[in-house]
Amino acid sequence: xxxxxxxxxxxxxxxxxxxxxxxxxxxxxxxxxxxQFELISYSYKSSAGTSSIYPGSxxxxxxxxxxxxxxEDIIISAACLQLPEGFTISRGSSQCSPPYxxxxxxxxxxxxxxxxxxxxxxxxxxxxxxxxxxxNITVYYHKDGSEQHQIIDGIEIYVDHYPELYIDVIxxxxxxxxYPGSQNIYLYIVLKNVGDSAxxxxxxxxxxxxxxxxxSNIRFGIPSLNKYATTSISLGPLSISPNALSDISYRVELxxxxxxxxxxxxxxxxxxxxxxxxxxxxxxxxNLAVLxxxxxxxxxxxxxxxxxxxxxxVNKDFKTVRSITAYFTILSSESSxxxxxxxxxxxxxxxxxxxxxxxxxxxxxxxxxxxxxxxxLKLIIFGEDNGAEFWSENIYHFTVAVxxxxxxxxxTDVYWFDGEIYPGSENARLAVIxxxxxxxxxxxxxxxxxxPSNFYPNIIRLNRY
Length: 465
Known about the structure:
Layout: H1 2-32, E1 37-45, E2 60-68, E3 75-82, E4 87-89, E5 96-97, E6 115-124, E7 131-143, E8 146-159, E9 167-175, E10 185-193, E11 198-207, E12 213-214, E13 217-222, E14 230-240, E15 250-261, E16 267-278, E17 288-295, E18 305-307, E19 309-315, E20 320-330, E21 336-337, E22 343-348, E23 357-361, E24 365-366, E25 372-385, E26 388-401, E27 409-416, E28 430-436, E29 446-450, E30 459-463
Antiparallel strand pairs: 1-2, 2-6, 3-5, 3-7, 4-6, 7-8, 9-10, 10-14, 11-13, 11-15, 12-14, 15-16, 17-19, 18-24, 19-23, 20-22, 20-25, 21-24, 25-26, 27-28, 29-30
């Protein structure tokens, strides 16, 4: 029993020595280390009132809600915010906040269970990386006439990545309309900003298929564009290859570099590549009606040389014909062009508006021994419709009858050279006048004239006079 009492006395002496060494301040800290306050919640929002903050955000509002667990009435002088590196208190704001009630007034006396709010504003440096950061507050309060404090941890601040640049192509159209072979046309693209930041300004390059569009790389600019707003850009003037097809899609790639602005006015840069497809309109047909066709010769017969096939057309369309390239093809085996080929081309640069008439002629032809000539005519038309240029194609087939050659000689007059002739006259000379009503030239004529039996001779052989 004496031994135990000695141990107790020794411990009391040791405890007294510890108190004398550390002093009263250590004792206060030991008491304050107990949880006198409980973190209920916290929230922060940007200067725009949004929950997202970014590198460079300023005047971020932070509200911390705690509850007093102290049984006695206390007075809180302030709660001071300790921010991580890369965060600073906003200009005009304080690092320490008085205690606020739920209605925004400040507390005088705080009782057990009271809910207390502390309010701060801070800035995020633009150099920090997106991610999670931790802050705490130190609550300074008076209890039993002495100042005490408690550090409250558990405040997480998440710095978001900058919103990406999101642009949708909501429409596109040609002006004027685009056809294979069109020139000096513009591609209009309607863009919509569907991202979470406004576009301050942007520049880009549109990349088109190089063997179809000239030029294939075109620079463009985008003006200031708020969230969910639309704008249109124009690419051109463009020329389209005549080899382009209207029944396939062509890819367009937009590479855009933009200066962006968040809701809380943080400026940053972003880049996006957007692809979409475009098509061309099929070349319109032009109504060129045939008024007449045939050969230049009055009457075409076998073995005719140097005749020309012609076609007379009228423009019955409101589209304008700028030029026509005519491809003549002789389908009949016995006939050919003068150079012994079956194909020939002529170009006509006559402009044909609505109602205008034109005659197209082939090169000279040779008509063989046949009763018909079949000809295919393909017209490659360079036209224009409301400013849109295009190439169109019309194909026609013709059959022209070929006659057998014959001589159409008409007796136009008969008379005696020697004046009047009477019964018994001798050595009378008879003149017969023939006229050639045919397209064939008569080189020589031998005629047999049969007279009544009382003429002598009554059969006469005549040469051309």
